Predict the structure.
Amino acid sequence: MSQVFKRAMQLLIGTDEPLFYEVRATNETSQKNLKKSQNRPFKKLTERELIQLESDIGALIFGEIPHGHRREFFNLDPNTWIWYDESTEIYTRKHKSITIRYEIHNNGILKVQEGARYCFIEGQELNNFVMATQLYYERVCRNVYQRQPNVALVGVYQ
């Protein structure tokens, strides 16, 4: 298993490593997910809790989450973004999930999917990714860290 995937799973499953941030939960989903933190109001949030808060915001960038779905979208580190989607088919009750990792390289953004599918994104997919990450950054700055984002206009890539 790759180091990045191990790190992503560790953050999704949990860790108790504290970070030096104090954050106030701002939406209902985040508040439900942070009962542990709210029971210890003078302690710092863990890295996992911060990523969960960010992921809750990231999941909503792409619209309302359908009933029976779970969506995650977050920035793992300066060069890695994670998209995770899981759902259960209504009639067959078959569970399916997909994890996509986006790696930022000097020569482009590499999309890594299950089944050893690797490709650099381009065209509309690249434009959508850039817009989603910019929206994520703005919303996370405002709603999680209570900071005004340093927003620069991001050009559309061709």
